[in-house]
Each structure stands twice: as structure tokens, then as C-alpha cells.
Request: fold
Amino acid sequence: MQEKYHIVTYGCQMNVHESEKIAGILRRVGYEQASTIEEADIIVFNTCCIRENAENHAFGNIGALKKMKKQNPRLIIAVGGCMTQEKGKTEILKNKFPFIDIMFGALNFEDLETLIARKKQEKKRVIEILEEARGIVEDVEPYRTSYPNAWVNITYGCNNFCSYCIVPYVRGRERSRKPEYILSEVRSLVEQGYKEITLLGQNVNSYGADGSTGMTFAELLDAVASIEGKFRVRFMTSHPKDFNEDVVKVMEKHRKICRLVHLPVQSGSNEILREMNRRYTREKYLGEIKMLRSRLPEAEATTDIIVGFPGETEEDYLQTEALVKEVDFASAFTFVYSPRQGTRAAKMENQIPESVQKDRIMRLVELVNSLTRKKSETYLGKTVEILCEDYDEKKGLYLGRDEFGRMGYFKSETDKIGEFVHLKITKANGISLYGEIVE
Ligand code: SAH
Ligand code: SF4
Ligand code: F3S
Reply:
């Protein structure tokens, strides 16, 4: 009987895509996907360490497997991703969970095939974590499970060292993929019928900044959007210190590129932005939004915000609120600052009490939700193009997103997954829209 795998993923889109690559490796080894975790012969945890709660989730879920491992001693448990890459965490995991069989890092998931073979031979625990990133490995074929959407890496790692962030420590320095690999991957995805391509990087705007690709991000985006066929192009994440008009000009040129930019602002206070080492000001940020909307009046922005960063005063926080109102984001991910060991911010003296952080996050979430709700209401009566991506069994409705990432639900007698449909919006419920297909 064929052996089966189950992958548990935490963290960002990049990690979700990495899990697709891990699935590709496991299938190459001969495993097939298990329908439940209980059925699996190998369970792989692809972890995240961006905030403490991401780590706590992983600790909890790995711990819960102790019993399963006892019941089935043949079960292989592998732990990889950003957490195992973090200084000191491998030791903690090793000691806390002696039943883990394989440990690998975010920088060498490609080794999983060899590590499994070694584990099967040696019977003892196999651990391999790299200190530094090697060159980009191009020969891992992802096993994609997100049709009609597909993610494509354009850069790995990060050079920015925002003072709160652990990513540069666990993902290494920024490396850009060669344009020919990216373009041939996108071409092949479009040929296979994928309808939405998202280019991924921690800071897509610095693509090729080391001179290794002969192309800027704007040029790459232009080349991707020039590929024939009906599909959408998205990209994330844009960094306000490097986002520029050249990118917006390319957006103007191609209707395929969604009029949505994910541009994390983090804070509305110049003082805090400086302490965060973000290397832009509130004014520069607002200028970019203005530039975007002057070229593309329909364009929307989404963002990430951190509250409770060390030294954040009520005044600083209110500046964030004011910025959120001024930009009128389509949506925003909001986070409470979480100190990460080894980062500059974790050593700052003026850490903010949890009660203050909680109060600010609640106020901010309320504000963001009210803006999103208001945006939803403006959709009423309008017709929007939705890319259908799934069927919701409970609701008995198909669902998909418009170019701004807004979820729309609708009824259909025929399978619409992978198709663009036009929906006349009849109901807006919080962040979700409901509508009827119009031809
Ligand atoms: N490269 C992207 C973001 C990657 S991490 C960028 O520069 O925007 C995704 C988000 O997690 C960040 O935008 C930030 O808002 C949040 N984040 C990162 N480190 C954090 C920390 N220590 N505490 C709380 N939120 C954090
Ligand atoms: Fe982290 Fe800053 Fe790099 Fe984003 S740009 S991954 S927030 S260091
Ligand atoms: Fe992503 Fe988490 Fe790593 S956000 S890059 S999986 S630390």
C-alpha cells in the first residue's frame, strides 16, 4: 500500500507555497496525500516564527502528536520551516519533543528526500539545518493545491532588517530568481489553465537590486503581464521604501494586473517608523498612495500594521489611526508587536504593557472593520468580475474574489471553479459579498 503524507503549515503565503514544494518532494519519494492526519505515515510541520503565537500554535500541535506516535511507531514526524531555523529553537524542540524524527530548516527543505531516506536507514533522529542559504534550487516541482491560483517566488530572503522582524535571520539574505525561470514557470502555469498568478517576495520592489538578474521588478512585471492568455497578475509584498511610479506605469499598461497593492505601512508615526528601521516617512507613504491613485483612480491598497511597538505613545498610535482613515485601505492585517529574540527591537527598553497593546489593537481592529464594511456597501448594485476558486458545501454556494481580493458568493448549477464570472452584488455582509451571475 502506498504511504501517505500530511503537511501542517503556519505563516505567510511564502510558507504555504513552500508546503506545495514539500508536497512535490514527498510525491517524488512515493507518498500520496492522506485524507486525514490519522491516516498519515509522515506528518510534516512547516513552521513560522514571525510572532510568539505562531510558535505557540506549532508547539501545541506537535505536542499533541505524542500519542499518535505511541500508537504507530512507524509514523515519521518531520519539523521544518522558519522556527527550526531560529537560533536556539532547534534545541528547545529537540528536548521538548523527543519523538520528532526529522528536523530541517527553512533554508534546506529541498533536502527532505535525503533526510527521509537517512531516517529509514539509521532509525535515529536526523537533523540538518543550514547556517547560511545556498543558491536557489530550481528543480523542485511544487504540487499545487490552490487551482486556479498559483504562487510564484521571485525573491527569497530579506535584506531590510526592520528592527522588530526575524525574517532576515531565518530566511537569509535576499536572492532573486533568474527572470527566465520565473517567466517559463508563469507561461507553463497559464498553459495549464491557472487564472491568477501571484509573484512572491518579502520586498518585490528590490527584485534584482544586486544586479544579478538584469531586470528591475517593473520590467519583470511587464514581462509577466505580457504573456498571452486571460489571467490575473498580483504581487506581494511591496515595500514603501522602494515602491515606485515605474511599477504603477506597468500596472496602467496591463489590465491583467490587479489594481491592488499590498503596501505594509506598519505605523503612522514617523518616530516609530524610524525606530522600526522602515526607512520611509508617513509623508512618503501617503505620497505613494496619492501617486498610485492619480494614475489609477480605482486602485486600492491593503496594509499590515503593528501596534504596541516599543516606545509607541498614545499620540503615535493615533497617528496610525489617522493614516488608516486617510488612506481608506481595502483591508488591513493588524498585529500586536511580539518581541523576537535576536532582533534590535527586543532589546529596546521601553516595551509597552500588554494591557495597552490590547486596548490599541481592539480599537484599531474596530476601525479597520468599519472601513471594510463601508467599502462592502459601496458594492451593492454593482457588477464585478470574480474569479471562482471554490465551492462552499455548507453554504451551497460558489465563491471567488474580485481583483481587490473581496470575496463574492453566488449560486450556480454548473461547476464554475477556474472561471471568471460577472456578479451583480445583491448583498454585502461584513467583508463578504453575495450576488447573482449576469452574462
Ligand atoms: N516583508 C513584508 C512582511 C513580512 S511579515 C513587509 O516588509 O511588509 C508580515 C507582517 O508581520 C509584517 O508586515 C508585520 O506587520 C508583521 N510582523 C513582523 N514581525 C512582527 C513582530 N515581531 N511582531 C508583530 N508583527 C510582526
Ligand atoms: Fe521583515 Fe522588514 Fe524584511 Fe518585511 S522587509 S520581511 S518586515 S525585515
Ligand atoms: Fe513567513 Fe513566518 Fe517565515 S511569516 S517567512 S513563515 S517567519
